[in-house]
Design a protein that fits this description.
Layout (H helix, E strand, L loop, with lengths): L5 E3 L11 H8 L13 H6 L13 H18 L2 E3 L12 E5 L9 H17 L4 E5 L12 H10 L13 H11 L3 E5 L3 E2 L3 H12 L4 E4 L8 E7 L4 E6 L6 E8 L5 E9 L5 E6 L3 H5 L3 E4 L8 E3 L7 E7 L3 H4 L5 H9 L3 E5 L5 H10 L4 E5 L6 H12 L3 E5 L2 H5 L14 E2 L10 E2 L19 E2 L1 E2 L8 H4 E4 L5 E8 L2 E6 L14 H12 L9 H4 L6 E2 L1 E5 L5 E2 L8 E2 L13 E3 L6 E3 L9 E2 L8 E3 L7 E2 L1 H23 L34 H12 L4 E3 L4 H21 L8 E3 L11 E5 L9 H12 L3 E5 L17 H10 L7 E3 L26 E3 L7 H4 L12 E4 L3 H5 L18 H18 L9 H9 L1
Parallel strand pairs: 3-4, 3-5, 5-7, 7-33, 15-16, 15-17, 17-18, 18-25, 35-36, 35-37, 37-38, 38-41
Antiparallel strand pairs: 1-2, 2-34, 6-32, 8-9, 9-12, 10-11, 10-13, 13-14, 19-22, 20-21, 23-24, 24-25, 26-29, 27-28, 27-30, 30-31, 39-40
Helix pairs in contact: 1-3, 3-17, 4-5, 6-7, 11-12
Length: about 950
Amino acid sequence: MMGLPLAFTEPLLLIGLVSLPMLWWLLRVMPPRPRRIEFPPTRLLFDIAPREETPSRTPWWLTALRLLAAALVIFAAAGPIWNPQTGIAGSKAPLMIMFDDGWSAASNWETRIRAADELIANADNDRRAIALVPLSEPNRDITLMPAGAARVALRQLAPKPYSIERVETLTAVDRFLKATGDCEIAWLSDGVDTGRGEEFLQGLGKTIGDRSLTVFEGGTSSPLALVAAENAAAKMTVKVLRTDSGIAAGTVRALDQKGSPIGEARYTFSPQDKETEAAFDLPVELRNDITRLEISGERSAGAVQLLDKRWRRRAIGIVSGATSETAQPLLAPTFYLTRALAPFADVRLADKGSPQQGITQFLDQKLPMIILADVGTIAPELRERLNAWLDQGGVLVRFAGARLAQAEDDLVPVKLRKGGRTLGGSLTWEKPQHLAAFAGDGPFAGVAVPKDVTVSRQVLAEPDAVLATKSWASLEDGTPLVTGEHRGKGLVSLFHVSADMRWSDLPMSGTFVEMLRRIVDMSGYTSKPGPGVAGEASSETVAPLHILDGFGAFGPPPATAKPLPADYRDRATPDHPPGFYGPAEGPLAVNTLAAADRIAPLNTASLRARHATYTNAEPRDLRGWLLSSALALFLIDALIVALLGGSLAALLRRRAATAVLAIGLVFAGLFSPAPTRADSASDEFAMKAVSQTRLAYVVTGNADVDSIVKAGMGGLTLFLAQRTALEAGDPVGVDPARDELAFFPLIYWPIVPGAPKPPQDAINKIDAYMKQGGTVIFDTRDAVEAPPGENGQSQTPGMQALREILSSLDVPELEPVPREHVLTKTFYLLRDFPGRFNSGQTWVETLPREDDEESAQRPARGGDGVSPIIITSNDLAGAWAIRPDGQPMLPLSPGEPRQREFAFRAGVNIVMYTLTGNYKADQVHAPALIERLGQ
């Protein structure tokens, strides 16, 4: 009708429009408006009209309103249809309908089915045969069928969950057209080019020749797709793709394996954007539970992104036994490990405390992987928890160090020799060792071996028959560098070097990063697996488990779905539709689109065809709209007449509503609990400890020992005030299980034979105190009771009690105080550290070996920090103990001249060492400074 997509089922009723001028005259008349007359009778008599009044005329605009309502009724009676079913007409030739039935057609599938149904209906009216050609099935025979059979075949079609290759169907179309001859063609396009679109258009143009072609496209929303999901360090991101332009926004939903929602993320398209990003800012534990991302309101397989274990970002806990974490954090093992793991894992460092507390913390958090860097002794009950965690699938990676070299532990893949192999040691190398090539069947296969990485120290494994099978990496001399084995469902691995630069320069290399990545990949928790580990399983295949249909819903695998390789990384195909493959506990995800795939609009302007939209293929009956509009106009007319007639002049009186005040009763302080008050004793202890620098000692519960130790620490404090600038406060007795230890730089612990072992909480607090820079002096006070046993191990009751305590502490490797140690030169120059006795040895943490000539000439040598532990048996506090009258409390043995003076000097050196660290080691620069001063 006049170029508009409008038709009438009863066009003869439009003749009623001719009667509208007659209605004009009829509708102009309306009753006269009532007049207001004053009540006095005389005035009423004068105003009485002598004859009957004629009605006034209706306003023109009210007449036009009534005529419009009448016209709408006439149009509605004629049965108007917007977008009438015109179909493809003009000949009696057969009709071939081509379908785009890939994932991009699924979101508007019902619209396409209605369009095809209309085409079939029009062809049926013209007695024309129909052929249906789904472009996803190039091997399907194209045959003509009657309209009834075509409708049945149409309802059996469904969108495919993968991208279709239109080009492959051209051969069958060409064969059909040559056999049929004259034919009209309709192509129901989805408007998306997923590849080779231009090639298809050129081939289609040549194939159809001069035949009539109608392309249906547009009129529907553009399909959306998800690709390239990535579980990054702070958030999970996924790219959202489209083909059209304009401002748009939407939501991506994240679901877990059971289909329960985990979170939502918004995305926004700028006018010209074809690609945007949605980000899920969730904790890593929740992100690791995501197995499906989908666009809300978009029903297609392309709008779904499936995730498996490869996209899970593993949370890794790091526990270090080294004391250099606080002294020199940039040289600490945690620094190198964090930098190496950060690109592909979420690294968590243990809270400041003992290694036992850090391991417990991560086990309570149920982390899948824990790294222990130079952690030696582990409490028996904690070892049991670790073994149970390994049986359930945990991954434990350990790094060697001085503590591990001295410990006896079964949480390593191989049995270790005590001590270590160093340059200049008993098991010596002539020069640092390089790495050997990695085995082709090991977890590090394919990793390049750096030529500049050398190893100067390692812990050695005891040779046995299975050592070779557990060796993942070796040095050029054949000794293992990395070993590992499976424990239950889990894995234990050991790097036979430290995680910092003290034993090798491996942590500075890119090979170190790749080796850690491979170990993480073995558990299948990273989003970008390395190539080495997967190579062993590349020949394995996994069967389909749950498959997506074209609408993005899960269903059973179709008969055409085939198994695929376990390391499959490509997009979905007809043989491998999208979905999950493999076992239910660890399936492999296959998605409709690969991470690098992009979609583009399909430009059909080069085709010689008539273009139609899907909106044109949907007829709409306008009678309801027209009748509703006419009724609304009649109601408006009645309201206007009532207003002009004055019937609404008397308005309803509105009674003033009394405002009701809502008074809320405030109950404050009646039932609220009283504020919690800090324990006064704890506050007093903290204030006393921080008011001055104070020395501390452990209260043993033995009154005689405690009184002597208190007097001894008081005597040392007085000696410090007399001989040094330190004016310390009175010493404080502490209970490690109850009191805060961080206030004190030095704690003296006298060992009492037969005393019960402190609780594990107290041991953990002592361990944490030493790790954070504090120093504990363990004094067995029994140097004269028994001679040393085998290998220098004293067998006195005090030493046995000390071993019981140290068995639960992560103690570093110890050595007798060497002559060049900074402890011998911090204030006084000393050769030994006597107390009441002078026959016992004093032990400190082993210093790093320095083999260069410059270090050999240094007058004082210290480690990276202060030794966290000092062990002696000379009863230092007994020599320092002073009575109130200033006289010594206890005699000395053997009582050599000035023995007590040297005992006090030893105490001064120890206190200065704990307070100032190893600054005396810098005396190596003294000659240069003196020379400069002389100039």
